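Researcher: Good morning. I'm working through a list of sequences from a screen, and I'd like to move beyond sequence-only analysis. For each chain I'm collecting a predicted structure so we can compare shapes side by side. This is the next one on the list. No need for commentary yet; just the structure.
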Amino acid sequence: MMAGITANSNGPVDAADLGNLTRACDIWGMTSVVRVNKNDQGLIYRTLDRGTQGIIVPHVDTAEEAQNVVNGGKFAPLGRRGLFTSRQGYGTTDFLDRANEETLLVALIEDIKAWENLDSILEVGGLDVLFVAPSDFAASMGHIGEVGHPDVQAKINDALSRIVAAGRHAGTLAFAGNVEKYAAMGVRFFYTATTPWITAGAKDFMARAHKAIG
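Model: Good morning. Structure tokens for this chain:
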């Protein structure tokens, strides 16, 4: 199972920070993944040029938008990434081929429009993961903050099932309470948050301390 560190361009991370962040990931043997804030080819390949090994792109709602992700993230003949290199290419003779093979491209399926266009999106080659993002998906259906709404869950499950049935890699947000369910559905790319783990560990620690103190 691959472990990675994800940076979010909606947060405090600048392009200038990416070199050091991705270098730290390289040192620790981890995969660096950055969520860019829009589906822009120049932004995608500039981020990759800074040493990032994976890109997450939001609001991929159509086949044309899916192809734009591939065009920005892959070198010719698969895409149109500018013919520059990240530091991983220094001293290598096959960087373009290796980058096309090893660069991770994740498209976020987070709008009801994407669900409606999913069959055509699935026809686009070059995307490694189609990730169904539950909160934005719910909001796009008019159910803000209601990820558990039956209609939302039905659409999410349908999207994941169609992705898996098409022989593609499906991803979604998962926690201890639902990761087994999604794994059984064929999902193989999971995003999770550390807060529940920290909270559970803190509660266990406090319970043990109070019990010991009496």
